[in-house]
Amino acid sequence: MVPIRLSLAPLALALAVSASAPALAQEPAGAPPRPPARIEVGGEGTAFRAPDLAVTQLTVLRDAPTAAEATKQASEAVGAVATAMAEFGVEKRDLQTAGFQISPQYQTDNRQDGQQSPPKIVGYEVRNTLSVKVRDLSKLGEIMDRAVKLGVNEGGSIRFEIADPADVSKEARRLAVADARARAETLADASGQKLGRVLVIQDGAARAEPMPPVPLMEMKMAASARSDSMAVETGENAVRAEVRIVYEMAD
Q1: Does the pLDDT of residue 162 top 70, yes or no?
Q2: According to DSSP H, which parts of the chain are helical?
């Protein structure tokens, strides 16, 4: 009879794998702790400054039978305004042509048969716009008076700006960060936790928000009704900043 030999190795290996399976499913010893909770908040800040720069749009409108004549009249008037600006200390770099437009003027006549004749050109309108930066705001009223006297007769506006907003932008950002932290502290306190260190700060671009342009001709008509020079009030401009901050939460 041939002897029968039994091998226990496969059985032993299966038992070893089975016994170790639960251990492998558990977290290994010494695993790093779970990261603390985070909170992300946004903050806004607004700083105010009196403007120190005015940008005006001065438009001359002229009409004539020919485009050349209308262009000549408008150009002469704008040239007179530009020349006069030197008397108030306005430099050449602060003068710029902001618009030039030629528009034909049409006329239609009623014929005896009741129909309208084809439109025909009877003249031309020319609008020439000069942009002027005024850095000495104490002279702004006089400048506007002179411009109107020299032929500025349509539209026009004044927009007040901050020439160098760097400092006021910094202040707006500081206010935005303080606002974000105050919001985060409120939320953390409500949840029974405390703020930890700052993990991320995202800076939104600070933006200046000048006051809407002031219509020039309306200001001039109001001044004419009072028989005095044009009064100009500068007020304040706002610069706004936004940030987003991620804080670590602590128990």
Answers
A1: yes
A2: 9-25, 67-85, 140-149, 166-190, 216-226
